[in-house]
TrEMBL record:
Belongs to the heat shock protein 70 family. Residues 632-653 have a biased composition (Low complexity). GO terms for molecular function: ATP binding; ATP-dependent protein folding chaperone; unfolded protein binding. Keywords: ATP-binding, Nucleotide-binding. Residues 620-630, 654-663 have a biased composition (Basic and acidic residues). InterPro entries: ATPase_NBD, Chaperone_DnaK, Heat_shock_70_CS, HSP70_C_sf, HSP70_peptide-bd_sf, Hsp_70_fam. This is Uncharacterized protein. CDD domains: ASKHA_NBD_HSP70_HSPA9 (cd11733).
């Protein structure tokens, strides 16, 4: 049975949030790429980053000097620094080191995945450990800075998206990432739901839509009903470990095998060669979405005793499709489950919206068409739709977008472990959120004075087979025969899909509460320490960036001045020219001592040098102009006499020709 909230209930809940001061940005924190969007009035706008790109690679690297790089600068240096370049860490967020998915990821990434003291999967660079939430935070800081550069003012509030099939630990860990980045995460929105908002913002007609979202690391399918600006999710399903990264890895494995067959060399032991192959695999995958064949050409991939070894390999689209057929097939079952849970037939679905870079692959589009019986709708930008939807939801929370209501669902069932290790569900999957549900349980043994409540999330019958979110004890129950005490367990899921659980002994009124923390996750202190470190880093980064920018400015001034000095050499008095040359040398010396010289001192010297050079060049330019004018007046008088002569000669020539014609 599905709980329907009245428009008023949810609208009132959102209006509490809507007293938001300042701008609200929408961020799609993706596995491979991230994107930030804002609302300008009633229209969403995707922002370009410092490199002029609308999406930013979700890549973070640490150089040997321990400088932190984020986005394209980090991705560019991955080949020379594969061990300290982190990518696709969203696949580790909120996961335990012992999880099967983590073991699988360890075999394919170039960096070190380590076990944190709380049992979570963390990463390591230059001997320092980082939680996936921290790596996510570094990317979020870049998105935050992109928005701040656009607005020219600090930004605090954000709506951040997550895969719809993320469990509670993964959602909480994403929220933690926002906090570490110095953001107030107003809402965590499911990615396919955000994409539906982007698609349906201007649409008024009622329809049922499916959002098929195959991104860099995760797959989601959601079925929604759109009715006069109410977006209601009917069902959702997915796979949080299926995406473009797996397609890349399948091709990478194939290329490694082909190279070994051809050269006898196993390149898996060579991190730099593997990084080059990984990048070549990603490039080939993208090219095969529009071309029937592509060449993978990698000179000097590695070497052995006989010399350097190159790779030259032709890959056809059909070959690639065969390599990844099993991955595309894995999207079919979640789609069928979502259709069944939504209680619709494929023909009842009016539109299928494609989201995520992998949906550009023709074979994926063909699979969707066969599954839903209709051509997919490609009207939304697969890379930007999710961020746009997040910005729209931000607009709703800020009160800028009115008359729009979003009713989302919880993706997985929630419950507790009961006698015999059975999983007893309290809230079924696809229940509209926010929601609250209570159930009364009792003791399993005579005289029991405490009970342990184990909270699980999943769909399996036995608790052990589902994800353990957390546990807590309710103590001080008066001894009584088993089955007599009445213990009321309440589950409360907020609009972010984050779970709050409480247990109360009805006899004594004693209560125990728990907000599930990310998979053993980050404690409040951990997060605060990381926030402080991020703030300190931000100040250092800002200083370093200011120095770099000033150095670039000064070098540009020097280059322009020295070029002009050569150009105007003959027009400048010799002593002035010499003075300028000395000034240029002094400024260069200051630049070479930039680590000890103050930024202000460099700036002042550069400004003074620029003023001096401009004054001189103005003088030289005026001299050149007057020289040119003098030359012009001379040349015009000589040219007029020349033209008179030429006219006479022309007349004589014509008379001569006429005479000859008569003869």
């Amino acid at each position: 049975m599905k709980t329907h909230h009245s428009f008023a209930d949810v609208a009132n809940k959102d209006s509490k949030d809507s007293k938001v001061k300042g701008n609200v940005i929408g961020i799609d924190l993706g596995t491979t790429n991230s994107c930030v969007a804002i609302m300008e009035g009633k229209s969403p706008k995707v922002l370009e980053n410092a490199e002029g790109m609308r999406t930013t690679p979700s890549v973070v690297a640490f150089t040997k000097d321990n400088d932190r790089l984020v986005g394209m600068p980090a991705k560019r240096q991955a080949v020379t620094n594969p061990q300290n370049t982190f990518y696709a860490t969203k696949r580790l967020i909120g996961r335990k080191f012992g999880d099967e998915e983590v073991k699988k990821e360890m075999q394919s990434v170039s960096f070190k995945i380590v076990k944190a003291t709380n049992g979570d999967a963390w990463v390591e660079a230059n001997g320092k450990m980082y939680s996936p939430s921290q790596i996510g935070a570094f990317v979020l800081v870049k998105m935050k800075e992109t928005a701040e550069n656009y607005y020219g003012t600090p930004v605090k509030n954000a709506v951040v998206t997550v895969p719809a099939y993320f469990n509670d630990s993964q959602r909480q860990a994403t929220k933690d990432a926002g906090q570490i980045a110095g953001l107030n995460v107003l809402r965590v929105v499911n990615e396919p739901t955000a994409a539906a908002l982007a698609y349906g913002l201007e649409k008024t007609n009622d329809k049922v839509i499916a959002v098929y979202d195959l991104g860099g690391g995760t797959f989601d399918i959601s079925i929604l009903e759109m009715q006069s600006n109410v977006f209601e999710v009917r069902s959702t399903n997915g796979d949080t470990f299926l995406g473009g990264e797996d397609f890349d890895n399948a091709l990478l494995k194939h290329l490694v095998a082909e190279f070994k067959k051809e050269s006898g060399i196993d390149v898996t032991k060579d991190p730099q060669a593997m990084q080059r192959l990984r990048e070549a695999a990603e490039k080939a995958k993208c090219e095969l979405s529009s071309a029937a064949q592509t060449d993978i050409n990698l000179p000097y991939l590695t070497m052995d005793s006989s010399g350097p070894k190159h790779m030259n390999y032709k890959l056809s689209r059909s070959q690639f499709e065969n390599l990844v057929a099993h991955l595309i097939k894995r999207t079919i079952d979640p789609c069928k489950k979502a259709i069944k849970d939504a209680d619709v037939k494929p023909q009842d679905i009016n539109e299928v919206i494609l989201v995520g870079g992998m949906t550009r692959m023709p074979k994926v589009q063909q699979t969707v068409q066969e599954l839903f019986g209709k051509s997919p709708n490609k009207s939304v930008n697969p890379d930007e739709a999710v961020a746009i939807g997040a910005a729209i939801q931000g607009g709703v929370l800020a009160g800028d977008v009115t008359d729009l209501l979003l009713l989302d669902v919880t993706p997985l069932s929630l419950g507790i472990e009961t006698l015999g290790g059975v999983f007893t569900k309290l809230i079924n999957r696809n229940t509209t959120i926010p929601t609250k549900k209570s159930q009364v349980f009792s003791t399993a043994a005579d005289g029991q004075t405490q009970v342990e409540i184990k909270v699980h999330q999943g769909e399996r019958e036995m608790a052990l087979d589902n994800k353990l979110l957390g546990r807590f004890n309710l103590i001080g129950i008066p001894p009584a025969p088993r089955g007599v005490p009445q213990i009321e367990v309440t589950f409360d899921i907020d609009a972010n899909g984050i779970v709050h659980v409480s247990a109360r002994d009805r006899g004594t009124g004693k209560e125990q509460q728990i907000v599930i923390q990310s998979s053993g996750g980050l404690s409040k202190d951990d997060i605060e320490n990381m926030v402080r470190a991020a703030e300190k880093y931000a100040a250092d980064d800002k200083k370093r960036r200011e120095v770099v920018e000033e150095v670039n400015r000064v070098e540009s001034i020097l280059h322009d001045t020295e070029t002009k000095m050569e150009e105007f050499k003959n027009q400048l008095p010799q002593d002035e020219y010499q003075k300028l040359k000395e000034g240029s040398n002094k400024l260069r010396e200051k630049l070479s001592n930039k680590d000890t010289e103050s930024l202000q001192s460099i700036k002042e010297s550069a400004d003074e040098f620029q003023r001096q050079s401009l004054r001189l060049f103005e003088m030289a330019y005026k001299k050149m102009q007057s020289d040119r004018e003098g030359n012009q007046s001379q040349s015009s008088s000589s040219s007029s006499s020349t033209s008179e002569t030429s006219t006479e000669e022309g007349q004589q020539q014509q008379d001569k020709e006429k005479q000859e014609n008569k003869q």
